[in-house]
Design goal:
4 helices
């Protein structure tokens, strides 16, 4: 399990590349790990302001995940969630 914002930020580019890849192998496990890490980070590490800022991107993420829209998931991570995590400060 990933237990720090720094580790999550280091992992995210590889996750985004994998989601954009034409090869589906391992995507389910990757998404499970990523969602678990994001939820942990938001609930245990970030302050209320960052938590609230991530609610809408997480809704978008959930919709794309339910639709198995991997390209959209990658875009949400890259353009909505990553920028917020980069400026997030621990609670």
């Amino acid at each position: 399990m990933i237990h720090s914002n720094t580790s999550l930020l280091q992992l995210m580019p590889a996750c985004i590349a994998s989601l954009r890849s034409a090869r589906p192998a391992g995507r389910d496990a990757l998404l499970l790990e990523l969602v678990d890490a994001l939820i942990y980070e938001v609930n245990h590490q970030l302050g209320a302001t960052q938590h609230d800022a991530l609610l809408e991107p997480f809704e978008h993420f959930a919709i794309a995940h339910a639709a198995n829209d991997f390209a959209r998931l990658a875009d949400i991570l890259d353009f909505e969630i990553m920028p917020l995590l980069r400026v997030a400060e621990p609670a």
